[in-house]
Amino acid sequence: MALSDLRREMVLDAIAEFDRLGRDTFLEEYGYRRAIGYFLVHGGRRYDSKAIAGVAYRGVSGRPLRPDEFSGGNATVARVLGDLGFEVTKPGQAVTVPSVEDLLQKVDSLRPALSPRTGAQKRHQPLTLLWAIGRAARDEPRLTPWESTHRELGQLIEDFGLEEDRPSPEFPVLWLYHHGLWDLPGHTDVPRASGSPAQRWVREQRPDSGLRPWAHEIVAGQEDVRARIVVRLLSAYFHGVDHNALLARIGLKPAVIRDGSSTPGRVESIVERVIRDSLLAEQVKRAHDYRCQICGDRLVLHRGFYAEGAHIRPLGKPHNGPDEPGNLLCLCPNHHVLFDWGMLTIQADLTVMDMASGTPLGLLRLAPNHEINPEHLAYHRKVVTEQG
Phi/psi of residue 344, each to 5°? Predict the structure, then answer.
């Protein structure tokens, strides 16, 4: 009997049965006691690791193992499950599953090295994440052999990195491992991402690697979160790069905002009310990660984030603006009101002006695949601001 013969799909089958039967019934069915130290963490839930491994072994021998046929613990069950890419907690370790906000925080706290020539941030780390997100979106395996990682990621860095970047995927893989986003199953002596010894370690170990299970499950299963991360990475690190070409290269479709309507419909009631396309406004807000295009803030509510879709050329009479992406901004409530009343205006070069003080507030924040029509900005300056 060798637990090392287990395969990942066998463990997933046991997890699925655990979910179907419930913990107590599953443990009673196979004669296992509740775990008190080692838990397998998967999909936001925790599982008794020894029981899962024992039941999964039926895929090897044709029957599950009894509890007295093998020992649990760090040297056996935890090691084997860890080698298969699962996370297993140890005694005294809190069983916490990172959230979407944890993932976004880690994405926002990348620390790429700076180009000594231009001072620009290098793109190794964001390209590694985009590559892994693309794999998750295509439902490809989480873990990739080092030969494939080195070839695919190295070529991506060469094609979309800075001009002087060397295609060295060893460094972002090691850095993201210590940052808590990357997984190198079976390895505990992982060096820091610095110098030739680090590169030599990776080339000698040739590890399978990929996103941590919890991060992979989020980006594979939640398209909206995946889109938010991609927008953040493209906006922060890929100025001057053809975003659509990069997305196509990693197998992600560009986020498409619907065309909307140049003549939004109206319904007759006691007064005429313009029918706004709420889905269109939501898509624009998502494209900006619910952050105000003027101040960058976003409101956090119990049910998620909040921002408002602001029409540049108002929809109602006498303006009759179109309900389409080029006529929409994502704003916080305060700046939405000020903009609607002409107290804020946006110059042709996208400088935001405070009309009360006559001072610039900075440039309007932009997002990939959301182009603002300059004609609507000109209309707002001329009609809403000057005549308001």
Answer: -125, 140
